[in-house]
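new request in #modeling-help
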Amino acid sequence: MESRINAALQVGSGDCCCSWRLFCCAVQLAGARRGQLGAVGFGGLRVLSSCSSPSCTLWYPPPEAGCRGSCSGSYVWRLRTDIPLSRGAEMKGKCSANESELEISWLEQAYTLKLFFLKEGHNTSRGQEAFWRLSRIQFTYDTAERTYFKDAVNPGKHTASSHRLSALVTPAGKSYECQAQQTISLISSDQQKPVQLLLSEVRVQPFDIAADFVFSEEHKCPVDQREQLEETLPLILGLILGLVIVITLCIYHIHHKLTANQVQIPRDRSQYKHMG
Amino acid sequence: GDPGGARAGGGTACDPPSGGSPALRGLGAQGGAGDREGRVWGKTRGMFVLGLPYAILHGGYLGLFLIIFAAVVCCYTGKILIACLYEENEDGEIVRVRDSYVDIANACCAPRFPTLGGRIVNVAQIIELVMTCILYVVVSGNLMYNSFPNLPVSQKSWSIIATAVLLPCAFLKNLKAVSKFSLLCTLAHFVINILVIAYCLSRARDWAWDKVKFYIDVKKFPISIGIIVFSYTSQIFLPSLEGNMQNPKEFHCMMNWTHIAACILKGLFALVAYLTWADETKEVITDNLPSTIRAVVNIFLVAKALLSYPLPFFAAVEVLERSLFQDGNRAFFPNCYGGDGRLKSWGLTLRCALVVFTLLMAIYVPHFALLMGLTGSLTGAGLCFLLPSLFHLKLLWRKLLWHHVFFDVAIFVIGGICSVSGFIHSLEGLIEAFRTNAED
């Protein structure tokens, strides 16, 4: 991450609506190649309309809203850093019948991720069923740590926690599996800044573990289930189509053979004018 | 980093370009492969006419002029192609000696290579027709997928369903049935046009007459050229169309009127749609419509795509049967039709195989739109501009007046330029699309 940004702001009033153009370089624009940046204008966050490096353009108000008077603009950069969970992380935890806790820390306790799981029973239409879920997340990070933070404004340890969370809901006795990426939002104690936890390729089971390092039967997340359905559907449809073709050809062949003995008016195709 | 608001920079490579006039909008940011593919997608997804307002967005008055010019050129090349079918016999009468595009090609290369020309034209025709068929399967799959994003049905599944619907095309026997489908297709197209134009007229007060530009967007206009030019191509079907006419003398009249009508309708459509949305015009004009009308239009677009499939499919089947499956020592395989004129079972099997082939290509070929641009700029431009003028010059050289020669040479050169630039453009797009895929 570059800590210095070379940027220039050009404010124009073209054709009655204001447009800002931000020119920047040597900065990975947040997100993918065609990134999304938010610009604050007249109360609220607006996503930039078009962004292709090295400049991003925003029209405010959007042209269909009608035209306003004068234009003025300024920009604020909000930097984002990605902190991956490193492979050599240390693990601690507590497992009990109804509550479990998993604590993962890396880079000498500079970053600590705590996951709290809860098991409960619900009254559903089929009777009493038990589910477990991820009920709380606590992420502690140290902005004085040099690898992922450069020249932080408030160096020191901060905590981001979840707010009324209920994720990874799984029937009791099963493990949770999700290959797709999930996002869980947390709020930091440092000026309420947003922190996002991105989970992918997850397999976790906090309760009812049969033996050491043995997962119970997996329960797939809805996105994975949908993807599985999406992938098997073409095969099924293809097989059905193939079957339909084969049956049609057989019927035609049999019909052809049966009616071949009947007297047919010979329809010669020599007079037929071809296309092309 | 310390966030702060400031006017920074200066003296570096990141200085913003000066001036904000619309003429310079073409310079500066150009989208990556995804944008380019999206643009070519727009071209094919809208099945040409719906992409015309976008061409006006980037071409201004030049785009309108190009619509008219392309109609004139395509009308002319159609007429000279048909003129190649006729020769003057000993009595001085003009007699129809050749029957098809293949015959014309063979006659041109006659002394040394009696069948080479025909084979080239055959291959070009088959490629063009099969690619068009595959395109319609891809387009209908894509349209359905975009109309129902919440269903777990992927684009592959929709393509398979579309092919299942199109399977009865394997039973087509003659041009009558095909022409019924074409008529329905034209009706669907009219409904789409009427819906769009009605909506545009309802916003007539907001038309931006001053937005039609005189200068062109240098980087984006070449795609518009492709959209405009290839919306008039019909030369593959002209020889048999003329042969099936009851009164072939009316052919010239028919060509003139159909091209004038097409030109006027397309020009008006493009202009009206552009005036309604001006700078917001999207590559496929239906994306600009509000969602209720867009849903209805999408249904008609899917219907149009499915109804457009029989014509190129039938033509491809005919070309294949004629070149590969005739009785006699010239062909490789025996006839598809029995003595009583009915289709043999294995003839039907081959037709079903062709339908399945178009499905497999639609599913497994990535970036199909770019590939179609690639082949289209070769075969399409060849069959529409290069070959007719070439054959006309070769066969009727002695009878041509100087202005005919001039037109033919000019069309050949312009067609060659269009073809080469389209080929290079599509190749660049394909390479970048594959590189983006490899990086992801």
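bot summary: Chain B has one domain: 48-439.
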